[in-house]
Amino acid sequence: MITIRQAVVRSVVVLLLVSTTIGVCVLFPNAAENSESGMILELPARDQVPGYLGFERPISMEEKKWLPEDTGLLKMLYVPKKSTASNEVEASEEGISVSLILSGNDRRSLHRPQVCLRAQGWRIAKKETVTLSVAGQDVKVMDFTLLRKVSEEDGTIRNARAHYIYWWIGAKRSTPSDFERILYTVLDNMFRNLNNRWGYPSVLVHVDLEGNKTPEEIANADEEARSRAFSFIEQYAPMFQKSLGATEAE
Q1: Which phi and psi angles does 134 have, rounded to 5°?
Q2: What is the dihedral of CA 58, 62, 68, 74, to 10 degrees?
Q3: Which has more pLDDT, 65 or 189?
Q4: What is the DSSP string of the chain?
Q5: Which one of 111, 175, 206, 226 has the fewest beta carbons within 10 angstroms of its own beta carbon?
Q6: How far apart are CA 142 and CA 164, in angstroms?
């Protein structure tokens, strides 16, 4: 049974919570009308990456279904000019897949990449934060080592290995951390009246596991794949990240 004293205490607590909420709303107004982005949707064109040919990839039905209409999305596949691939799957495994996603007013545009990767059958075997030197600045990115089983047309099963590198680009900063993105969103909204319109670049490269490779050969192939992805980011991130030099087209 609740006593009068307990009822009073609860009322005071509720009143304090309500007062605090009202105070925060007054001191830190809604920043929804003050959205800013630190990324633009631009990637190298067909012949701009030496040794590769670029192909723009269409937006899938799943992406159209799950992403709000005002989400910005650009996807490119860069295939080696000397590629011997006979289909899109082989071309993807030889090339460099790059995506840029820019959130709209609806923040459902962005979610942790683990969701999509696991839905595609990938298992995240390792996570590593890597610092790259881009346009004279240090840029931290997240590197996921991915593993999955692939069923071939002849019924055989083979192992696939890849690296998925991504980071978050806000209006004034970037971070490889999902938690930090959320934290910065709240703090910027409250204390700077700024609503980050986050950008999300990602680079996917496959590791060449062809042949009966030794553990040392697999390690070398793994590092070669990472180097291709890191090299692409170091060279072309300034095309789409504003803090690295990207500018909106006039």
Answers
A1: -130, 120
A2: -20
A3: 189
A4: ---HHHHHHHHHHHHHHHHHHHHHHHHS---TT-EEESB------TT-STTEEEEEPPPPHHHHHHS-TT-EEEEEEEEETT----SHHHHHHHSEEEEEEE--SSGGG---HHHHHHHTT-EEEEEEEEEEEETTEEEEEEEEEEEEEEE-TTS-EEEEEEEEEE-EE-SS-EES-HHHHHHHHHHHHHHS--EEE-EEEEEEEE----SS--HHHHHHHHHHHHHHHHHHHHHHHHHHBGGGT-----
A5: 111
A6: 8
What gap in Å lies between CA 182 and CA 91, rounded to an integer?
Answer: 36
CB 194 within 8 A of CB 31: yes
Domain ranges of the chain: 1-30, 34-244
CB of 176 closer than 8 Å to CB of 140: yes
Q: Are 105 and 70 in contact (CB under 8 A)?
A: yes
Q: Which residues contact 58 (CB under 8 A, 6 or more apart)?
A: 75
The two tokens of residue 88 are: 């899109």
Strand 174-175, strand 123-134: pairing: unpaired
Q: pLDDT by residue (tens digit) across 82-134?
A: 988 888 888 999 999 999 999 987 665 577 888 889 888 999 999 999 999 99
Q: Report the candidate in 119, 93, 125 with the shortest Cα–Cα distance to residue 225.
A: 93
Nearest C-alpha neighbor of 37 from the set 242, 176, 234? 242
Please tell me the distance from the alpha carbon of residue 143 to that of residue 161, in angstroms, as a whole number.
Answer: 13
Sole residue written with tokens 């999955």: 148
Per-residue pLDDT band for 5 (boundaries 50, 70, 90) equals: low
How far is the C-alpha of 223 from the C-alpha of 232, rounded, in Å?
14
